[in-house]
Amino acid sequence: MATVNRQVCPHCGQTINKREIALFSGMVKALFKVWQWCEEKGVHEFQRKDIKHLFKTENEVARFGDWVWFGGIVYKNGKGHYGFNVERIKKFFAGQLEIPVRIYKDPMSDEIIKSDYRTIKGIPHLIEFLDENNEFIARYGGFFPDSPAPKECGQ
Predict the structure, then answer these.
(1) How many whole angstroms separate alpha carbon 87 and alpha carbon 92?
(2) Strand 81-84, strand 99-105: pairing
């Protein structure tokens, strides 16, 4: 995996700048699979174990969990328990709801910054996040030289 602009604490090596979580079309396909399954079952809340069969790898299941950061469509209620905001997911698939496509998590403050709002038609394809070797590019930003050391560092 390639990284861009990653800064680390000189004492402990922990990342100290914001990490980007980007929404891509594969996540939308996964969301649709789970939503179809819920519609068939007549439910809008479910356990992680209930939907694992819809995915090929553990990574795909984990990436589905990232939906909790994007637009209030998926919520998490305890470990491995998810649900859909039914009104919002219907609007999203109808192209009537803009959601953030980029989320930045600040490891220093636990702040979440949402940006680049789009409808379903504007969600990027996975290829936009890969380098020339088809490896995912981890992007970081928002580093400030006078930032304090990470909470876990002890410095």
Answers:
(1) 9
(2) unpaired
Report how far residue 33's alpha carbon sits from residue 37's, in angstroms, rounded to the nearest whole number: 6
Coil, strand or helix at 21: strand
Measuring CA to CA, which residue among 119, 121, 81, 117 is closest to residue 102?
A: 117
- The number of angstroms, rounded, from the C-alpha of 50 to the middle of its chain's C-alpha atoms is 20
List the chain domain ranges: 16-141
State both tokens at 92: 């999203």
pTM of the model: 0.71
Query: Alpha-carbon distance 155 to 11, whole Å?
Result: 7
CB burial of 85-112 (b: ≥16 within 10 Å; e: otherwise) equals: eeebbebbeeeebebbbbbbeebbeeee
CA distance 64 to 51: 10
| The predicted structure's pLDDT at residue 105 | 86
